[in-house]
Amino acid sequence: ETGVTQTPRHLVMGMTNKKSLKCEQHLGHNAMYWYKQSAKKPLELMFVYSLEERVENNSVPSRFSPECPNSSHLFLHLHTLQPEDSALYLCASSPTASLGGYTFGSGTRLTVV
Amino acid sequence: KQEVTQIPAALSVPEGENLVLNCSFTDSAIYNLQWFRQDPGKGLTSLLLIQSSQREQTSGRLNASLDKSSGRSTLYIAASQPGDSATYLCAVRSNSGYALNFGKGTSLLVTP
Predict the structure, then answer these.
(1) A98 touching chain B per CB within 8 A
(2) I need a labelling partner for A32 at 20 to 30 A (CA). Which of A103, A107, B56, B97 fits?
(3) Which of B43, B46, B102 is facing A42, going by the closest CB pair?
């Protein structure tokens, strides 16, 4: 496989559930990102990892918890979410955190009920 | 904070027309600017990446220009086709921070 792969593609969860989103990149990039895309709003950066170290946390509520076990994998752990957290969650990677173009995955469409 | 604006928000053109999408940004201290395409409910596909030292990039029927000093970029699409229908997003990577700052996009519809 090549590029950035996200699973699952769709997720419906209740407010008391715990779930995880997975992202995997096969590009040899050193930086990975989580973005949130809500209706009628620009994409919002959530987290940045560079060489498995979190380098930016954009005032994201603690109910979102990222994990980067290695430079190829990124997770977003979800718990006690709110309906307003329903959105498209996009993972991206770039050669480094400072330079280079981004490659995005297809996203996970999350619905919180 | 870098603000990115895209005009127009929506555009409908007949097939075959040449068209221009506009992007402006407030802070000219950028590393690069990237144009993406997004189909409904899908992820982002990178179209063109322009480094801050470059003035333009071309790929097939697409040409993107960058005027860093005036904070503007344009995406030119030649001989538009119905398959070009999508939302086009402009994103700027500033010198400070790690974020790619996005505009809200231009929704393009090319009618047969």
Answers:
(1) yes
(2) B56
(3) B102
Of B48, B87, B93, nearest to A88 by C-alpha is B87
Structure tokens at B12: 């409908």
- Residues of chain B with Cβ-Cβ distance to A103 below 8 Å are 46
Rounded Cα–Cα distance for residues B81 and A21 (Å): 35
- List the structure tokens of A8: 């699952």
Question: pLDDT digit string (tens) for A7-34?
Answer: 999 999 999 889 999 999 999 999 999 9
Q: Which residues contact B53 (CB under 8 A, 6 or more apart)?
A: none
Residues of A in contact with B43 (CB under 8 A): 6, 90, 104-107
Short-list B104, B93, B14, B41, CA closest to A43: B104
